[in-house]
Fold each of these.
Amino acid sequence: MRCNTNWADVDDVLFPINCVNDWHWILARLNFKERCIYIYNSLRSAQNDRSATEYVTSYSVLLPLFLQATNFYDSRDDIDTTAGAYEGKRITDPFRIEIVENMPIQNDVDCGVHMFSAAEFFVDGKVMGHDYDVKEHRARYASSLYLYARWKESSSCVSEDEGPLKLKRTSA
């Protein structure tokens, strides 16, 4: 699935969140049908859960307003906004927030690897179990990035943000 896929065509949207004050990354998953934002957090404690929830709360409040303003639910005949998770709620009420349990806990500064892995496991329909090896995934991601950079170099590919800066026009 591409990043620019219309939200009306998916059930879940994954997005990384940088918890700036905690120097930490978490993954959030917005599920439209369950009217919920799930938090994938590799640091688990009462304080870390509270902090992650605070960061996600802004999304929980703003996203329903955005969805209403863009007439999102008009394009989704598979979501009944009067029943199930929507029953008794206004369309602009905040989404429910739930922390995903039983995630592997990070032992080092590997929150980014944990976050990418959680996204990858979700997309592949797998569960991150207790046999998750962060070193293995870190090495795999590093290898992939290295090979991608080599391919770009040998193919003379330039990403938009790596292209030459555009000069500002001046009036003569």
Note: Helices lie at 46-69, 111-123, 134-155.
Amino acid sequence: MIQVTVWNEFRHEKRSEEVQKLYPKGIHGAIADFLKRDDFVVRTATLDDAEHGLTTDVLAETDVLIWWGHVAHEEVSDAIVTRVHQRVLEGMGLIVLHSGHFSKIFKKLMGTSCDLKWREDGKHCRIWNVNPSHPIVEGIGETIDLAQEEMYGEHFDIPTPDELVFVSWYPGGEVFRSGCTFFRGNGKIFYFQPGHETYNSYANESVQRVICNAVRWAAPKDHLYPAYGHFDALEKEDEK
């Protein structure tokens, strides 16, 4: 069984009645609920937990980490970011959602600013499936239509994705690379744009399906983690 940890800074839900109504269990709770229905083993963690809920033991037991953050990126401990980074290199999957593009861990893994254009105008979003044979889009049609979603627009300052899975379009004319995969060390990373806290994107069945598919795709396989440092020769010269 794939073990998933859903991490959320859990700040909007404590401060905003509007967000509380949409996500009474927190964004992490809403995501955890649909993951559990898909038979994943799920735990949650938040910023204010001890070690942000991401202890060495928790991460050692995590196959895929899901990350949602927005207003408190700088409150995340650098030591915890380093710990998560190492686990990704070792093979833990990482799914970064919405404004998690500005998280310390995503920027560390990307090596760029990860900046973009944005606008909250309450308008709709059409997410185009541009990689129809990819495992992440299994069961997804040509598009996902969301009644409301925050506009994210290009240029998105990320490295060229290893795989582009989704491109989003907005009524203002903007487009955005909204579903991207990256490989770092033994780990697989998926960035997925939907999920603004005042819009109910995580109730959309197609969005849920994408995230569940991404968990399966990102879960580590039995791949050997390389040995580094000094290395004895495999081939021995004949003694003379």
Note: The first helix runs from residue 12 to 15.
Amino acid sequence: MPIDSSHLSSERTTNMTKTAFTFRGLMVPVFTPFNNDSQRTLNLAVIPQYAEFLAKKNVTGILVNGTTGEGTSLTVAERKATATAWANAVKTTKQHLMVQVGGTTLPDVLELAKHAESLKVDSLLCLPELYFKPTTTSQLTEYLELVSKAAPNTPLLYYHIPMFTNVNIHMGQFLESLGDRIPNFVGIKFTSSNLDEGIQAFNAANKKYTVFLGNDQLVNAGCAQGMDSYIATTINMLPELSQEILAQWKAGNIVKARELQDMLSKAAITISKYGNWVETMKVAMTTLTNMEVGPTRRPLVTLSTEIRTSMAKDLQNLGLQVKL
């Protein structure tokens, strides 16, 4: 039985006043739907259906334009259009909407932050500067201060994903150092296998900040450390597994939670062995659900029919229902 996470969504406001960040639980980084044409143009018409599909699966949090959403492969205009489409969709589904605004030039980051705030989204997530990279907590803080000032009335989180950014600032130390320098800063997305660092971030400043663990294979391990919030790609196509891991931990059924994590990890490994994370996960979305989110955009590649068939058979051998 999926965990009832309806109480986990923060309340959507009708004015531009600063609000506390109250969301806890599972948030899904959504794919950006593309048409299967030469330019991989946006297929925004799918987004209302996508939102409803996830809402019916009790998924109450949406992250737009992240890594899974190929946000750094979109133009500023496309990122705005995608964020707008989701902002309109969640008016019906009442899901918490987080928009990732980083991963481009600073003027564009600030423009995207302002635009997202004008949409009254629930929160912002921001990658660091990707070329003139911050190397100290002070430099990272100064960068996020600029983003904060562009959208001062929206909760702001930092996106820590060193495997892509090569920004290796220790998140526990960073959060301990912040103090009150960024009034609307509320937490981080921690996408790393360094769980020790993630736990230090979770405990920083007397657990002042929300830490979303962004590793599909560490949900159970995070629960064992008291962590309660996760952003994981597999929530798109296998939400029940993550939901049930949280539910079993809440009920004290540790062995069952471990078994469910083993199943989720096997599925993630089976999918991702066929190529790039986003390339393979987007194929898995089509293979395991009725949602059509289209191909990936260059520089990512489209997986061959042979690979898709092989992946489907492997997933079927795990006991999952697939579309062959």
Note: The chain is about 45% helix and 10% strand.
Amino acid sequence: MIRYLLKRLALMVPTLLGILLLSFAVIQFVPGGPIEQLTYQMKARGGGGEAAGGGGGGVLYQGNKGLDPERLAQIKADYGFDRPAWVRFGLMLKRYATFDLGESYYHHQSVWSLIVSKLPVSISLGLWTFCLTYLIAVPLGVAKAVRHGSRFDAVTTLVLMAGYAIPGFVLGVVLLVLFGGGSFWQIFPLRGLTSDNWAQLSLLGKVADYLWHLVLPVTAMVVGSFATITVLTKNSMLEEIRKQYVLTARAKGLSETAIRYRHVFRNALIPLVTGFPEAFIGAFFTGALLIETLFSLDGLGLLSYESVIRRDYPVVLGALFLFSLIGLFTRLLSDLCYALADPRLRFEGAPA
């Protein structure tokens, strides 16, 4: 186990370097970088005719034309673009080695403070999505396994597949139209996690207001996750029911309830338990970009999207570094959870 753990930790370094190198290289060829955007804005403030005339992306990429060369050189020095790309990449790695993610070009504050300020929204969405998904999908999967082949099984499978086929952001639009004051009913709020008068509400009022704002975005994120967990639970239960120890337990006179929940269910949970770390972290950092944008939730997904649009490279690369590191450790934690959940598993001789 220790040898396997050390090999996995050693492999994280080149994997992380590869992710950063590829992302950094791609960014070098993306037009409309921070220099072009800033010089374009300076020309627009100065009344340059090009700003009003073109209006398209082509003018943005030619923003350095017509500026004083000394001023342009100063701007490049301020952003660090006066150095070769390989030097900037090396300096970035040196900062990241000490977990210094740099400072945002657009917000003019550290990337760490930006990420921390957006975490509450993403944690709210992720935590509720994770909990509701497992609390509903696991019992439903067990019920489907017990009633395998019945009408209940067929109807729930049809509903789950329909929910799985609908993208979360499409369902979010439908929910907004139906219940957010679109063409039908205005029941739930359209944006944010709290109301404008949240500070004046009582404690119970704050809790109710917070939960009321979460209904639509969490529903849009949860529905598509039900199918995978439910089907995995059902298949794991059915696979365990067919094993020899179940026949032995029945021969000993154990009741079906005892067999189902004391033996079958415990073994069937192994694939689910091992996926907890990855699912838990993934609920925070993946899949919420469009939902946060749609419901105007100021979280990590919206921050990443705006940073890409504004070419805020420190935020893009810093968030990528942090999320990649968390993802690598989460995958390792999932493997270790599998070993803890199933004592028969041994990592000796297993590929790294």
Note: The first helix runs from residue 2 to 28.
